[in-house]
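Predict the holo structure. Ligand: fe (ii) ion.
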Amino acid sequence: MTRPVLSRIPASEPAEAIVGALLADGAVIVEGFLSEAVLRRFNAELEPHLEEAETKDQGYVNDGYAAFYGPHMRHVLAVAQKSDSFIDEVLCHPVFVAIGDRVLKKSCQNMQLNVAHVLERCPGATAQILHRDQVVWPDIGPQHPHRQFASVIALNEFTAEIGATLIVPGSHIWEPGRRARPDEVIAAEMPPGAAVIYLGSTLHAGGANVSRDRRRRGMHVSYCLGWLRTEENNYLSLTLDRVRRLSPLAQTLLGYAAHDGLSMGLGYLGAVDLADPLDLFAQGRL
Ligand SMILES: O=C(O)CCC(=O)C(=O)O
Ligand SMILES: [Fe+2]
């Protein structure tokens, strides 16, 4: 049996092509997601945080969390607070916004950032267990098949040897309980600046880094329905002062906008003094 492959689509292609491949296969590789100039700037901003992460105890709250990420990692959390390039070039990336519009907005008014962290898998890092990201929330029925979508952006070249993300194409529509055979798992090998984007229902894992001396630097960023609790607490990870200075789109994607579900028969969530926080930011009242 031949190994499955993922479509590779340039970021400049119409969003329909990218979303079409994502929904068909459960994952897609988007090439040129970040330009070389952006990548250089972003990596330079991250460097001091990665160095700090090397010397810091990760302090995972429990053994399960620690085992999920594993040792031999330089792990930088709350990238939205630490990097302007992240806000300008990643958080509000038109490809992410277009996927959100077509995949998540059937079930919410606004999508929001779920987590934004850098996972630098160092030599000795072992593969994560294959998992589906959206199981952090309960299944909310066939009416809402997508709770989340995620991506890993290659901040350096991703090869299987250094731990490229492992993907199981097609697993987003598998019957419950079906396990992946080894020949159904592929490594998302890709050049720097490309991103593998996958649905919350797609089996995947961070790969093992079996090289002697090379690190795999990946930015894991995911978005979820606007009314779910996010994995990373963006309200407390970012300072209010920083959020005030961001664009309304960035504020919305960080979960600060009220979620007006009235047209969907749902409620109005996230108000401050009965108002939309975005209006209060714009009026200088928050
Ligand atoms: O690092 C990777 O390639 C994947 C990370 C991942 O799947 C996760 O953190 O949920
Ligand atoms: Fe994951």
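The pocket of fe (ii) ion (ligand 2) is lined by residues 131, 133, 204 (CB under 6 Å). The first strand starts at residue 8 and ends at 10.
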